[in-house]
Amino acid sequence: MLDFKNCYLGIELGSTRIKSCLIDSFGKPIESGIYEWDNKCENGFWTYDLNQAIYGIGQCYLDLKKKVRLATGQFISTLGGIGISAMMHGLIALDENNRLLTPFRTWRNNYTEDSAKELSEAFGFNIPARWSISHLYYSIENHEEFAERIDRITTLSGYINEKLTGVCGLGKGDASGMFPVDEKGQYNSEYIKIINKMIAKKGLHINVEEMLPKILNCDEYIGKLTPEGALILDPDGNLLPGIPFVAPEGDVATGFMATNSIKPRDGNISAGTSIFGSFVLDKPLKKAYPEIDVVVTPDGKSVAMVHCNNCSSGINECVGLVNDTLRTFGVWKDEKDIFETLFKSALDYQGDFKHIAFYNYLSGENITKVNKGAMLLAHSSGNSINLGEVVLGELFSSFSTFNVGMRILKNEGIKLDNIFVHGGVFKTKGVAQKVFSSVIEEPLSLNKEASEGGSWGMALLCLYPKYHEKYAINEFLEKVVFKNQEFIKEIPDPHLVKQYHQFELLFIKCLKGQRILGKELA
Asked: pTM to 2 decimals?
């Protein structure tokens, strides 16, 4: 029999799936639930329907509840703790009556690039285009009709958490992707003064700090499930109100938890719809770089982050095309089998990469200054191509933009003891992990539990307050959660390294054509 008072639930709203994970009091996964959704581009903005987000967390929970019921014969009525995490950044703008002023603008939008550059120059600190403050400043600077009515802004995790608990606030990690957070774990007061003056010059007199969510600690419960929230999460009415909640967090924070990479000189890389690497610093960067975000861990340690908008979406498009082709010929295959077969074909290709250029840019990419996305495959007319070459080229393309940021960190002298990877790209054992290791020329470790991803990481954050008096958060992970965990390690393959260097030369040379094509097809 499960004692649900000693079970903890994490829910993460990811880019293509909302996922829940239930764990025991030692962090071991018990069961998971899934609800699939996706972003869409409407009126020029990438967005998710927030009504679908509310519906989706309920359906995701019901999927988990059904599985627990079938496995144990028990209904869940209470839990030891719940936590919400989600994709970071973007803009959710609310008025004084808590009404949404514009559809949720996600991290994938890069129309804010000029506003972000202006803020970065004013602060002397890199403010990426996807950060919430870039979106807010853009709205004010461009006199969008709703700008003067904004009372406060939040992120997706903060919005969902408030619907369930009534508490307006964020964990340190998610908050640091809205506005810079200082070494004390609070919004940087000097930057607040600067932006307030900048906005005043636009004719709007506000205090940005009052518009931002309160920053909450990771070692305590911050609210409880309300009766209204209980019905959102469990429309059947079995779940009782009063369950404690931890601070809502972003997907960077849950990545640290799910990979046990929260110590200085450790890092993790998440590869899904987007790809981002988060590396805990043991010393500050020498200067600000437009390719590098500086955020913080759930417990406030400084982090260098490389973030790229495109990764597996291009791969998914290719797999979908293959699937359509097979069905045209009356062949029906499980998509998982298609992924595995195609990925394995990539390692079979032993030729060179001197005649093919591949870009997986479904959306724009700030690091390579591509404003509008367009997938592109080009090869020289005098050379034939084969399937393995194309698939390996797609994998190289999915990791190559990220490698630009990694090189900056290496040139800065940043030393890393461990790099862990997680995310859907690594489900086919020994392929994407080996290719990625060869692209960045670093050993990469994959935790066997990493398939649970951010929802598991969020569940671990729910569990941590139970242990915080005894352990610091990194000790909790090492001594409670990961003490018997197994890792799969891949090291760079010399032949793949050589192939990638050839691929990268053309990738860089042909970027101008990619930028032109993206604009023409937009």
From this structure: 0.87
